[in-house]
Amino acid sequence: MSQQDKFREEIQRGYTFKNDYVLLGGAMLDGESVSDAQIKAPLKTFNRHGLIAGATGTGKTKTLQNIAERLSEKGVPVLLMDVKGDLSGLSQASDGHPKIDERHTRIGSPWKGQAYPCEMLTISDQEGTRMRATISEFGPVLLSKILELNDVQSGIVSIIFKYCDDKKLPLLDIKDFRKVLQYIGKDGKAEIEENYGRVSPSSVGAIMRALITIEEQGADVFFGETSFDVDDLLRVDDNGMGYINILRLDDIQSKPKLFSTFMLCLLAEIYSSFPEQGDSGRPELVIFIDEAHLIFDEASKALLGQIETIVKLIRSKGVGLFFVTQNPTDVPEDVLAQLGMKVQHALRAFTAKDRKAIKLTSENYPISENYDVDELLTTLGIGEAIITVLNEKGIPTLLAHTLLTAPSSSMDVISDKEKEAVMAASSIKKKYDEELDRDSAYEMLNKKLDAAEEKSKKEEAKKPKKRTSTRREKSTIEKVVNSTAGRTVIREVTRGILGVLGLSSSRSKKGLFGF
């Protein structure tokens, strides 16, 4: 038996599954495609998370696009973080190309152009269905982690939430939280300390500064009503295809704090609201986080801990997370260890540091008798990757050099007119377009303070006025001022205040500097 025949048997045995699967591509050996050796991933394991990594220009985004299409065809909804603004083509069918046909002939799978049901979302000032969340939905613990507060400051945030609950003051947006923070630090300090404990002015100031930091990155647009219902991410169209929800993020690449804040809020909301799935055989939702390093680079230790916890737990809700980044080392080790599917595109070895990184990356993959992984990582072509997935029993499959399938939708950015058409066709955009600003903590506390000020003015007006100086008293003062002693005192005081202007009269006649 030839090496290629042996390899084909290994692939067929390792990548044949009883239940539904997603086709990823065709296996390769020694740089050549191997017939009848398709690389697949069981649909049931997509909630075990994944990694798509590789250098710039190696095809990561198209791999993301391709997997999202296959999931949509299986009726699985998808959420994509479109950081670079190049995923809108999913809404339009591809016109095809001879090279695509040639690729799929080698893979052994037919190809056809296809458009997919898409929803364009936004958390910034860009056009799209707006995603918002209220401060109350975050809760004191999560909000404290996002603001990177210490234990004392976190305690004050808990007091704010408790006070607002007791007084029926809704915390909806940032101005609500800021108003309550100002109130407990000044006008309401006595009330707070009497019922909830001492509040340090320095801690209040630190929280205010942390709040300004995330507000400057655009959090004031994200916090508020109407709050987004995560169940709207689970829609399926009339043809049974899962919606591909594209979150437009190309205007917040310089705002990683807002990105990580949003992601943590979204994952926490999904975890708290989705029911337990158990072994359902298919995921409920798959989330692809492009440019994943934006989450981890700016995250505090506490925030990283929260993300790691959610990644470990959220798969029981039927939710899969795929991190898309340039190098696996961009993802913390505790998170990387939770990722069942790994799709590794080419890496570049320009420096000694790059070569060390490639050596480290190769150790994240199963040992292979068929490939020198270190060398293969630097020679992969565009649209090729090394892949390992979990089989239906949760065991990693053997490593496979894979020629990836091509997306069925357009790989180009669509025009503004086409984007407007996609947004106009949305069945939920109108639901979230209206920005509500109902009476909440900000308005209620302002009314309370205004009423207290008005009451204070009325009480002040009722008090008897203080007696003013009589003509006789004024006359006495004038006599003192005009007397010799009075003039002497005034002169001496003036000299002391004005310094060099209080010089002796004989010297002043010669000029200021005695000339």
Architecture overview:
The structure is a single chain. The protein is of the alpha/beta class. The chain folds into three domains: 320 residues, P-loop containing nucleotide triphosphate hydrolases (Rossmann fold); 90 residues; 30 residues, no CATH class. Helices cover 45% and strands 13% of the residues. It contains 20 helices and twelve strands. The chain has a twelve-stranded mixed β-sheet, with helices on both faces. β1 and β2 form a beta hairpin. α5 packs across α8, α6 runs antiparallel to α8 and α8 packs across α9.
**Low-confidence runs of at least 5 consecutive residues:** 492-515
Helix fraction bin = 40-55%
The name of the CATH topology of the largest domain is Rossmann fold
Global mean pLDDT: 84
Widest beta sheet: strand line-up? 2-1-12-11-10-3-9-8-4-7-5-6
| Gyration radius from CA atoms, angstroms | 34 Å
CATH superfamily of the largest domain: P-loop containing nucleotide triphosphate hydrolases
β-sheet strand percentage: 5-15%
The span between the termini is 116 Å
* Alpha plus pi helix count: 20
Q: Largest sheet, if any?
A: 12 strands, mixed
What structural category characterises the helix and strand content? alpha/beta
Domains counted in the coordinates: how many?
3
Number of strands: 12
